[in-house]
Amino acid sequence: MKQRILYGLILLLGVAMMSCSKDDMHNTIEQEPSYAKGELFVKFSPEVADMIAQAGTTRSGVITRSGVPTVDQVMEIIGAYDLERVFPVDEMREDVTRKSGLHQWYVVRFDGDMDADQVAQQFKSLGEVQKIDFNRTIKRAYTGKATPLSEDKLSRASARVTRATTNDPLLAMQWHLINNGDMFTSGEVVKSVKDADVQVEKAWEKTMGDESVIVAVLDEGIFVEHPDLKDNIWVNENEVYRSLDDNDGNGFKGDYYGYNFAKDSGIITWNDVYDSGHGSHVAGVIAAKNNNGLGIGSIAGGNADTPGVKVMVCQIFSGNVGASSIAVARAIKYAADNGAVVLQCSWGYVSGRANEYDWGAAGFASQEEWERGAPLEKDALDYFTHNAGSPSGVIEGGIAVFAGGNESAPMAGYPGASDDYISVAATAADFTPAVYSNYGPGTSVSAPGGDQDYYFDYVDDDHNYGEVGCVLSTLPYHVSKSGYGYMEGTSMACPHVSGVVALGISYATKLRRHFKAEELQDLLISTATPIDAYMTGIKTYCRYVADMGPQQPMQFNMAPFKGQMGSGQVNAAALLDAIAGAGTQMSFPNLYVATNSQVAVAPALYFKGGEELTYEVTIADSTVASCQKQDGKFVFKGLKNGSTKASVKASNGETHNFTITVREGATDNGWL
Predict the structure, then answer these.
(1) 590: CB partners within 8 A, 6+ apart
(2) Which pairing describes strands 591-594 and 484-487: parallel, antiparallel, or unpaired?
(3) What is the pLDDT of residues 565-600, one digit of tens each?
(4) Beta-carbon neighbour count of residue 546 at 10 Å?
(5) Extended strands (E) in 214-281
(6) Is the pTM of the predicted complex or chain greater than 0.85?
(7) Strand pairing class (422-427; 399-403)
(8) For the domain 142-580, what is the CATH superfamily, name and number?
(9) For the packed helices 375-387 and 325-337, what is the interaxial angle rounded to 10 degrees?
(10) Where do the domains of the chain lie?
(11) pLDDT tens across 505-523, in order?
(12) How far apart are CA 639 and CA 633, in angstroms?
């Protein structure tokens, strides 16, 4: 029997993602909890956190003692040798960090011979400690690769572009984007249904993405030089490529394309022999460039004339180097602090209802259990969902999208199963549930994830069984010489939803509509295509065994999936239609300016069709603030403490009124 291959994180309770591969590595899963030796996360009370910060001499706050007698006494007992802030100081975001309480989290490092559970008990006895968490080691669950698309097949596809939607030669093979219902038909057997996709074709009539929208991909490194990806990789303009310094003061050195949290480095990697290409594959689904006559199409990658959404690289795996809970938490906060509004997470704990014989210890069984068991992770995710975006921008807060899990379990895995995030189940090209997909409680929506075992009777030109039923996307050249190949899993369904969310935000940007993150999330779920009608009868599939091909035909009853695949299959066209009539019209924001400081604002961001208009500003009291035009922006300077009315008038006659308030210690969100 084929052992289902995983791609993912092995944490305290096990974490999993899936991809198409010929390797059979299921048994590499560790069954015992695994923590980084000699480390513990401690969330101190605000007062103690402030005292520790005052004792620190570095930006990260690494110190040998806290200055708090009771805390230092425990540190002496356990042989602790230093404390360090979990989240480095970002000069521009420190006020938000403190308001959220993330500055209270510290890593306590102690003698590695000490048992972490015993150390935790010592700290729990202190009134100065609010929460305790373990620095779980995060390891790969397999060493397999994706199934590459041959160079010959790419060449033949490039010679005959068959779709009129875009001129991307491989789009005809991407049933998950545009499904005409004619790909998987053999005699009387039909395994494809028209429109069993994410409905991007109609959505593209409204937008193909917007470069102001940033999706943070927490995964392996991304092949940032891939010709189908390079134009849509996020760049930190305030940083220097391959710099060893923190040029922009955000706490991370050389973070030009994002950050390698696995190796604590600004150098993004993707071509190690142990890299599977998963991060690049995910990125391609979301933001490969469309209509460039090259490779694949994507959901929100723009086109040859208009840039698409940007992908921020938040690398949590690097070669054979695993990550840790601290790397994941830092990546989540980094994403929010540096402009990402969508968090793409093709990972999650094994479902709490997974078969323990196949998967080892089950994961969290309830939201309460997850919040209690992973408090640092929960705090970091809360920070993202509450503080990404902007109250005066298109979206206020961030949307986190998770893979639902691949254990065929009747409950999604956490964190995605939480009420606050989106958890994605996987479907095949006929709306039926993928044979591996989790479903049931915690599942928000479904999306195409591929189903190799279901398409066992379809052999492609490269003599690969079933891969055509998987998701086709971008890969590094060391994984696929053509730069493209197949993967499957809820980890592939996940970026389809992240891409649709990003496309929705892009359209809201075009319309200048403002949404709270939870409003947009609700729209995504409510506009999904109902698929319960397809949850009937028996589904036949064949487990695939490496080097042997399909074996042992198997069946499962689809009735238990009815009403359990979330609200339906994500629908980009329906979401964009709903966005047009929801949210609130954006207006020029009220401004908070520190005395003798400046704030720059681009007026075009707040007027529909704003790039084509010109603007004039009027300030009622010019002794409080002044304004100058500079590179398409208005630069407001605070002259003295006070408040004044102001207005900005566009060349189409539309006028927005706002208030300028000047005080010492002001930020663009108010006062410190």
Answers:
(1) 392, 658, 659, 660, 661
(2) unpaired
(3) 999 999 999 999 999 999 999 999 999 999 999 999
(4) 14
(5) 214-220, 258-260
(6) yes
(7) parallel
(8) Peptidase S8/S53 domain (3.40.50.200)
(9) 10
(10) 35-138, 142-580, 587-671
(11) 999 999 999 999 999 999 9
(12) 19
